[in-house]
C-alpha cells in the first residue's frame, strides 16, 4: 500500500485524490504522513522501527525455528527450551512470522503403494464406465454400534471450580459402565436422500442377515414401479415391478396382473400418450401426447413423489405447436428435455428448469 501511495504521489496526485482512489483503505492522516516522509527522505520506510528493538522475534531466531521444523518434529515447549526464549515468543514466530498452524494427526487405514494404485485405477474405471444416470441408482450404506454410555469428548466440556472436589460436586464426573447394551444401526444414502434406519438389537451382522433383514427395507424405499404408456386409452399405467412374467393367457394370471396395478395417471387433455421419461432425481414423469381429431399434441410433467403422486405440475409445447411427437429423452445433467417429431422431422428442446 505504501508503494501505491508513493507512486500516485510521484504522478502528481494529491492526498485527497489518493484517499478517494484507495476507497478509504488508508486514512487521510496516514497518507499525509507518508507524503511528508517522501518529500523529506524520498522514501516512506522508517529508518529504524519505532519502539524498543526485538530480542526474541529476530530474523535469526525465525530462521533457526524454521530449520528445526524442517529437520524434525518438535513441540513448542522443547523448541523454546532449545532456543532459550519464551514459549509465547516461539508461538508468535510460528504463527505470525512463519505462517504455520498446528495440525492434528489424522487416523486412516495404512495403505501400501500397490493398494493406492489399485484405488486410483478403480476410480478411473468408475468414471469411464458409468454415467450420471447410473450413479443416481447407487446406494451407499454403513453400520455402526451405539451403546448406553454414548460418546463423550473431554476437550470441549469443562467445569470451572476452585478445586477438584468442588468440580466433582458440580458434575465433573462422567460415569460409564462396562459391557453396556449395544445396538447396531444400518442406514443408506442415495441421490434421493436417506433410507429408513434399520436397528439390530441381538447378534452381529453377517451376509445372510444383511440379505434377509436389510435389503427388503432398502428395496421398499425405492420407487418400485414400472410405468407404461397406454396410448389408446390416453393414460399412464404404473404396475408393481414384481409383475408375474409367466403370463400364459389364463384368467387367473390376468387377475393377478390387474391386482398389481399401483396407480393410473390420466388427464383430460392427454388424449394419447406416445412417449414418457422418468427423472428419479426430481421425482418427475415427463410425457408427450399426440394429435387426435381437434386436440393438439402437448407435453405433460407429472409428480411421482410419494406425497403427490400423479399430480400435474405443468404442460408445455413449442411456440409453433407440436406436429407429431414420437419420442422424448432427458439430458444427462437433467436440465434439458428433447422431443423427437416425425412430422415435421425435427427435435424440440425444452429447459426443464423453466
Automatic annotation (TrEMBL):
One of its GO terms (molecular function) is nucleic acid binding. This is Transposase. It comes from Rotaria magnacalcarata.
Amino acid at each position: 500500500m505504501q508503494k501505491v501511495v508513493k507512486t500516485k504521489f510521484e504522478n502528481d496526485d494529491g492526498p485527497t485524490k489518493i484517499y478517494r482512489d484507495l476507497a478509504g483503505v488508508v486514512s487521510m492522516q496516514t497518507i499525509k504522513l507518508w507524503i511528508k516522509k517522501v518529500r523529506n527522505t524520498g522514501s516512506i520506510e522508517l529508518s529504524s522501527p519505532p519502539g524498543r528493538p526485538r530480542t526474541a522475534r529476530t530474523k535469526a531466531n525465525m530462521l533457526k525455528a524454521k530449520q528445526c521444523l524442517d529437520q524434525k518434529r518438535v513441540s513448542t515447549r522443547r523448541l523454546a527450551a532449545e532456543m532459550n526464549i519464551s514459549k509465547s515468543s516461539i508461538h508468535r514466530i510460528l504463527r505470525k512470522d512463519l505462517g504455520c498452524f498446528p495440525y492434528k494427526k489424522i487416523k486412516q487405514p495404512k495403505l501400501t503403494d500397490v493398494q493406492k494404485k489399485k484405488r486410483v485405477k478403480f476410480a478411473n474405471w468408475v468414471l469411464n464406465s458409468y454415467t450420471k444416470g447410473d450413479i443416481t441408482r447407487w446406494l451407499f450404506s454403513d453400520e455402526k454400534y451405539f451403546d448406553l454410555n454414548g460418546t463423550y469428548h473431554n476437550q470441549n466440556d469443562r467445569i470451572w471450580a476452585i478445586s477438584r472436589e468442588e468440580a466433582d460436586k458440580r458434575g465433573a464426573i462422567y460415569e460409564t459402565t462396562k459391557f453396556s447394551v449395544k445396538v447396531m444401526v444400518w442406514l443408506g444414502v442415495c441421490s434421493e436422500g436417506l433410507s429408513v434406519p434399520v436397528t439390530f438389537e441381538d447378534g452381529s451382522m453377517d451376509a445372510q442377515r444383511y440379505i434377509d433383514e436389510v435389503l427388503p427395507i432398502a428395496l421398499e424405499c425405492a420407487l418400485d414401479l414400472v410405468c407404461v404408456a397406454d396410448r389408446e386409452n390416453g393414460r399412464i399405467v404404473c404396475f408393481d415391478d414384481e409383475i408375474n412374467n409367466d403370463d400364459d393367457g389364463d384368467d387367473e394370471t390376468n387377475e393377478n396382473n390387474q391386482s398389481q396395478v399401483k396407480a393410473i395417471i390420466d388427464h383430460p387433455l392427454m388424449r394419447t400418450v406416445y412417449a414418457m421419461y422418468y427423472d428419479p432425481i426430481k421425482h418427475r414423469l415427463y410425457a408427450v401426447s399426440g394429435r387426435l381429431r381437434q386436440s393438439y399434441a402437448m407435453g405433460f410433467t407429472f409428480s411421482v413423489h410419494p406425497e403427490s403422486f400423479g399430480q400435474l405440475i405443468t404442460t408445455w409445447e413449442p411456440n409453433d405447436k407440436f406436429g407429431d411427437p414420437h419420442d422424448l429423452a432427458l439430458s444427462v445433467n437433467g436440465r434439458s428435455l428433447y422431443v423427437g417429431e416425425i412430422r415435421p422431422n425435427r427435435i424440440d428442446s425444452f429447459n426443464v428448469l423453466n
